[in-house]
Design brief:
6-stranded parallel sheet, alpha/beta, 15 strands
Length: 364
């Protein structure tokens, strides 16, 4: 059997990848491509040659490029990982797709819905894989959350309450919603049945330090069937919390990313309501009973999420299929973020999320 496995591995061609962007996230991508059995890191590209060289040197001495155009002209590269600022994703991704390269792009997929639409369309028209690097979706914990919900263990999802706060870096070009909320939104989109498709979005933001953008934010989303989702993000908290509670009609699940010993817990606890008719006036009174059952925490096989992500990228390319977090998933998140921006501008009003809109035409 071992010989058969080795034969299959030998028959599967290794894919060659290039990483564009050697700043914060690019080195992590480069390291995982370099250490993967599915990939060979062919090149690292950055305008800063020395920075690119440092990343390449730490990743099995990949080639160094400073021009995206020259990189994409190479015929020995199958795929490109884009780890540049969100405002540059559109141009870099379109160039890569038009050069015949599969693409995985750091979150968020794009800085506008229109640009995200165009990227998804371009990949579809060319038969190429466009993947969004929603890294948390590839952690063992979130994979388990997805599995538990899909199996119906929680029953009907009633609410989602997510908190992502810490004393973080105030970004120069985006607010706290665009910086932190993509993580929570992408997780919800991955684990909720049918994905994340609210009809409207309401956002409230605050800028208590005068940064010129929201540093504290609250996002409210109605979900199908009367469920609700709430996201709290904050750059200014002295404590760090990454926590998501998903309440169901049968059980409630809590994901606590900072609890290394118990990242996922399932509670057979909740509130049951019964209606009892009273006297001849036919009044009703809601009777509340509390269910106090067992709590359990599944064992998780920890792994590096980025390694699992790029394996999924390779599998989707070889299988000519959409990856778990494809361009459409990235676009759903961008639509919600853009709706949140419009809601903030209107004082927190309910703004259509536009999750089912047709792609916008006419962009170059």
């Amino acid at each position: 059997m071992q010989g058969d496995d080795q034969s299959v591995a030998a028959a599967t061609p290794v894919l060659r990848a290039a990483v564009v962007g050697a700043g914060y996230w690019g080195p992590n991508l480069a390291r995982n491509f370099a250490s993967s059995d599915d990939w060979e890191l062919a090149a690292v590209c950055d305008l800063d040659r020395e920075r690119a060289r440092a990343v390449a040197r730490a990743s099995k001495d990949a080639d160094v490029e400073t021009s995206v155009d020259e990189l994409l002209a190479r015929d020995d590269i199958d795929a490109v990982a884009v780890a540049t600022p969100a405002a540059t994703h559109y141009e870099v991704v379109l160039k890569a797709l038009r050069a015949g390269k599969h693409v995985v792009v750091e979150k968020p997929l794009a800085d506008t819905t229109e640009r995200g639409h165009r990227m998804v369309e371009e990949a579809r028209a060319r038969g190429l894989v466009l993947m969004t690097d929603h890294t948390f979706c590839y952690t063992a914990a979130i994979e388990k959350v997805h599995e538990i919900i899909a199996a119906g263990e929680l029953g009907e999802v009633l609410y989602v309450d997510s908190v992502r706060i810490n004393l973080g870096l105030v970004q120069p070009d985006i607010d706290v919603f665009w910086d932190l909320a993509p993580h929570d939104l992408s997780i919800m989109d991955y684990v909720l049945p049918g994905g994340l498709e609210p009809e409207w979005v309401s956002a409230q933001g605050a800028d208590p330090i005068g940064a010129g953008k929201s540093c504290v934010g609250y996002l409210f989303l109605p979900l199908p069937g009367g469920a609700t989702a709430h996201v709290h993000v904050n750059w200014l908290s002295p404590t760090k919390i990454r926590n998501m509670t998903i309440g169901g009609s049968r059980r409630t699940l809590v994901w606590d990313d900072l609890n290394l010993a118990q990242r996922v817990s399932v509670f057979d606890r909740g509130v049951d309501l019964a209606t009892q008719q009273l006297n001849r006036l036919d009044r009703t009174e809601t009777m509340v009973s509390y269910r106090l059952g067992d709590t359990w925490s599944p064992a998780l096989k920890e792994r590096e999420a980025l390694g699992a992500m790029i394996s999924e990228f390779a599998d989707s390319i070889r299988g000519s299929r959409a990856p778990a977090t494809d361009g459409a998933a990235g676009l759903r998140v961008v639509r919600i973020l853009e709706a949140a921006t419009r809601s903030l501008a209107s004082g927190g009003r309910e703004v259509p999320a536009d999750v089912t809109a047709e792609p916008v035409r006419g962009l170059p």
